[in-house]
Amino acid sequence: MTQHHRGDDRGQTILIYVVVVGGLLFLAFAYFAFAQAAAARNGAQSAADAAALAAAQDVRDQMADGLTDSLGQQDGWVDWLLGNHPVPGTGYAAAAQFAGENDATLDGLTATTVKGHPAFEASITTRFTVGKSVIPGTEGRHAKAHAIAMIEPRCSVKPSGDPKLIEFDCDGGQHWEIDPKKLHDIELPQAKDLFAVHLAE
Asked: How far apart are CA 167 and CA 5, in angstroms?
């Protein structure tokens, strides 16, 4: 009689062990599924960041070219320098390229403003999926993300004592004194000296 109860106890112990191990395995697979989803989200965000930054940098370069052209005319250069001139491009091609290089598709790119400065919002969808997991439907689910990058002027106008010269100061203590008639004889500021590009907070 006693031996029969011991057999029942052993059977119950094995059953409990199987249930506990099964539960732990399910939790492990579920944790792995969440990790897969997190990795997909991170990949999507990286692609969106890259696309938005690429668009802003492309337009930043065009803004620098616009400033250089306006210096020779001595007309409208202040608006270019301070980022008040209409945005000269869309940055779409650059954004699409960088989205693709990050295994994503550019869904849209919108010109906007952040704190009064030109900015671009990129929306992307990853070409890869979350992958198979214990959570149904993840094998066909693509991650989406968006990011905004802004172009912020780094310079301010300084009144010139010589009306024939153009003067302005930039971050880092840079001072520029430019004779519009001698543009080909001097080293002009680069786009990165004139405008900072970064993700909007």
From this structure: 97
